[in-house]
């Protein structure tokens, strides 16, 4: 693990009534192929009690692979970079904290993307 952001509390948008989320970004280095890393992440979610019952529903944990090196993928199993990362403050804000020079491959510098978002959510 190369860096971990602060925690950011975010109210859920859409879906059923549920508690706020706690969001963070971790920058990790791995030699695993992207799909294998995603599988490891899903295993961690399962170990921590994640059940995938309801789309956009409450969850104990939700790990997302936002970007993986210079890989661009539009497969059914994994879309990289994450297709909505550029419009999510709860992704861009902690990411900018740990790597302000980062560039989202499909949309540009995350610092610029963050500046273009409305204040909340």
From TrEMBL:
Record-listed E.C. numbers: 2.7.6.3
Keywords: ATP-binding, Folate biosynthesis, Kinase, Nucleotide-binding, Transferase
Pathway involvement of the protein, from the record: Cofactor biosynthesis; tetrahydrofolate biosynthesis; 2-amino-4-hydroxy-6-hydroxymethyl-7,8-dihydropteridine diphosphate from 7,8-dihydroneopterin triphosphate: step 4/4
Listed CDD domains: HPPK
ATP-binding keyword on record: yes
Keyword Transferase: yes
Biological process, per Gene Ontology: folic acid biosynthetic process; tetrahydrofolate biosynthetic process
Domain 7,8-dihydro-6-hydroxymethylpterin-pyrophosphokinase: 55-66
InterPro entries documented for this protein: Hppk, Hppk_sf
Recorded GO MF terms: 2-amino-4-hydroxy-6-hydroxymethyldihydropteridine diphosphokinase activity; ATP binding; kinase activity
PANTHER family cross-referenced by the UniProt entry: 2-AMINO-4-HYDROXY-6-HYDROXYMETHYLDIHYDROPTERIDINE PYROPHOSPHOKINASE (PTHR43071:SF1)
Protein name stated in the entry: 2-amino-4-hydroxy-6-hydroxymethyldihydropteridine diphosphokinase
Organism: freshwater metagenome
